[in-house]
## 1
Amino acid sequence: MSKLETNQVDPATGTTLTLGTSGDTIAIPSGVTIANSGTDTGFGGTNTPAFSAYQSSAQTISSGTATKVQYNTEHYDSDNAYDNSSNYRFTVPSGKAGKYFFSAIGSWGTTSNENAATIDLRVNGTVKWFNRVRGSGTANILITTSAVFDLSASDYVEVFLTNATGFDTLGGDGYSNFLGYKLIG
């Protein structure tokens, strides 16, 4: 192996300088700093697929019954992986397996004392994470939960709410929301 020492390398023609060929590995030793003053492309990753959805109108949550929350309006959906019209769930697209962060919020107003309410994050129909809140008196109640799951292609995540007395969720952006995105790994 030979060693080249220089302070600057410029392309002989054009504006592209290529290091190595397909299949080569460019090794950057430990302790070396790469300083970038230009545009970086192809480094790191993106937090996609990513989506954010909310309920545009109220939904009835029956007493004592776990009910799937219908987050029916999207803020964004980078890979068209969230179904906001029938299944109300996020499905991992082909080739997009990995760790994902999810957050869900359910909100409702009440005119009577409330018992415990539970919000579930379910993977492939099985409860994987939940949070419970106890409310009393008459006020708006908010319940939220978030978790990270290691998911495979075609796995799906959905949100359910349960309450002993039943209620109607508060519809509208900012009240009941569901979002998720792939973590850069």
## 2
Amino acid sequence: MFYDPVKSLLKRYGQSVSLQLPGQAPDSYSAIIQPLRYKNKMYLEGDFSLVGYITNDAYLYIGPGNKEIATCVRDARLFAGDAEYFFTRADTVMMNDKAVYTWAVIKPVLYDEGENV
């Protein structure tokens, strides 16, 4: 059996997530999610608009390379605990023609109070 150090690290240090790709059953595995740090130590806060409060929260996702996130960024959803995220950008890192890991920028899905989900 091939030893995959990234998969081993994700399983050891990551959290349980569930990925929902269009037309597929949810897939559970371990990934790392952490707040995305901005340059100049500036943490962007939310803004108010005509339609209400908009948050600029963004998170870095690092997950296994065998997920097809990069090909369907707009339609994929990630669930971690009680949070739901959408992908704004994703790419798979390759080494020797093997997908090693996928990184992405994710943002929380926000619903209005009282909205049926």
## 3
Amino acid sequence: MNDEIRGEVPQRLVVAATEVIAAGRHASMPLRAVAERAGTTTGAIQHHFRNKEGLLIAVLARHGERAVERLRMLRTSVPPPPPAVARAILLEFLPLDAERREEALVALAFEGLATENTELARAYREQHAVLAALLAEHLPTTVRSDIDIVLAAIGGIRTDLLLGRITDVRATDLVDHLLDRFA
């Protein structure tokens, strides 16, 4: 088996896991459903990711990479002011389009499972620390001590969007209000 094919199976499994969670079939992501969707076996999941937690961590990492890539695409020859970068970072985590909606559903499922799994909770804390550090680079010093409040608010806005309690426009307004309040 060549390297290209070996690399293809883990990618298919990550995509399949994402689709299973985003489709709402089951937040706990049954491995059999993931393997079936990826056209492989549960043994392939164990081979490539060790277990369900390893696969979930790979799914979360994939979404983080996609968000970082979208943020990189925002770069121009003239760097935007730090508050605009902070705003862009925060908006990346809101389900304002189909791709981000899928990512938000995965994130919520991951968070729910992480409350009962120490390995997933550790991965969540690591991702949170990376995001907090990224935001700290683009927020005024006075706001840095409130990054946990900002991130908690974004989590609530994300959930409210997914539940249909607020609109995309209202969510964007809330992000702007939040940043204005802390600026």
## 4
Amino acid sequence: MAIEIGNIPAFDNQPAVGIGIAIPFSASPVSGSDSIFKINYTTKDQIKSNIINYLLTSKGERIFNPNFGSNLKEFLFEPLNNQTAEILKKHIEDSINNIFPMVKLKSVEIFQDTEYSLITVQIFYSVFTSVDEFIELNIPL
């Protein structure tokens, strides 16, 4: 697969330069370093961490950035049905499309597990010219 040079972020050409902290955080030190946190070294990995962080943050949770976050916790006590799943799907699609312009959203899939009152959200997307990326979140309702 050919990659256009203009689409590769400058940071990705320097593999020893950390871009940000990976999510989820590690509870133990990373082997081979003094760091407690795992570091992302590519833009696509950092964007994945940023999307997870955004979706799991509620609006108002960040003190100096009160509009940051997706408010997924609003769905906590909603009924587990197809209408809620469609609203949640649209909410996630709109959030990603508005906040992350560098992400090309492929699809958002919502799976309901009524036995455990759990919704699984699968997000398929691509960044720049990378192959498809994937995020899976389990949201207890």
